[in-house]
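INFO batch 0412 | record 1 of 1 | parsing
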Amino acid sequence: MTDFTRRLQQVAANPDALTHFGRGIEREALRISPQGNLSDQPHPEGLGQALTHDWITTDFAESLLEFITPVSTDIDTTLSQLSDIHKFTYSELGSEQLWPMSMPCFVENEAAITLAQYGQSNSGKMKTLYREGLKHRYGSVMQIISGVHFNFSFPEVFWEQLFGEQSDEARQESISGAYFGLIRNYYRYGWIIPYLFGASPALCGSFIKASASTLPFKEIGEGTCYLPYATSLRLSDLGYTNSAQSVLRIGFNSIEQYVDGLQAAIRTPSEEFAKIGVKVDGEYRQLNSNVLQIENELYSPIRPKRVAKSGEKPSDALQRGGVEYIEVRSLDVNPFSPEGIDADQIRFLDLFLTWATLTPSADMSDAELDCWRKNWSSVVVEGRDPELKLQMGCGEPQHGLQDLASDLFAQLRMIAEAIDAAKGGHAYVETCDKLSSWVTHPEMTLSARLLEAIKQKASISAVGYALAEQHAMNFDQADYQQFTYQQFVDKRHASFADQAAMEAADSVSFDQFLADYFADLH
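INFO prediction complete | emitting tokens
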């Protein structure tokens, strides 16, 4: 019996261990005008204040909405909550709609992108200034790429089954170690996620212009560029793979190694970013000139997380209480789903993240991590090429993607059978069988289906507008399921009150606020 099989039997002995995963979704979406351009309007007042709203906020730009569901252990509940948030948002958008893809719609120039505004509190000003820094460092167009982030945690009973009785301190250490083992296996095999669910094989030519890419793009019609076998250009060098951070060596072998690397990065000066200046002619351009302004600037496909206390930095929260959950950051927006993600995707992530935790996960050197990242780079640019080979470790023989994925699905199906046995029904096995067929039929993947639709209409814009219209109608006709309209109204009012209270509570200047926040960097 393998270690994986033994661990699976161990946790499956208690049905609750595989039926109470904690999940939360963050979905980003650009607002577009009736003409199909990026919206130039401020964050709609009817949605509430972005700084203090629990469910509806903004990301980089005023036009880039972010929807956040509460944590739930039921997939239908999570998707219904996300649907309700969309429905209410549409009721306040007027003639605007939501762009249904990860890569942006047509953007005339960077000046068309207004940074997200969060009011006059010191905290709100800091959020906007952080975005000002991102604009100067990487350009605004790259920052309005949208994605879906999937937050996931195992229930306490899962750890009880896996580790038995432990002291609180030992349990915290074991859980953090297991989550870091998950992260290492995610780097080894997580390329399966963009293979299946990547949905950015093409993009608007205006983005290429802004990125100065050297990739060998082909053209469809006027202004649409694509790569024949690409899955997720969002995760390529065009998107969130940032060359400025390639010097960082942040390891995932332990919480200590990760935190030390992260904290070193926010203390490491950058010659390149120093040229931008921090405060020039009395105006701030960035929070500081270090490699990372703050920890959230680190681009990674997955993050270990713990809910932070007010004013607490993410790494301090991890040191205080260990890893509480993980955030999967490599999902493109699913253009065929009104909510940007569907139940099959969530069930697959349940299976994969459970597999990554139960499968032995050796420590990983920097060199090995670079090897795994090369596999990711290959899959996002040419993942649907049936001849694609991946390297399973530095210096190891190469294997076909289809062979590796088929082996993975054989183990995922064992987990699917165990979850279905615990929950009743056949949902997980059906999802597993459906998605495993995409391995030998790459034309069924999201990227292939989207590229085919774009070729038929000879334009990514035409496909995007048609899907946006379809999704808008879907939410207009839908009923509220988890929340009520009045709850959203109450949230809106509360967000205005909370922001006003924050602004009234400030007792120091913005300069002093920043000096206090970064005092530990000096």
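INFO post-check: The chain has a mean pLDDT of 94.
INFO record closed
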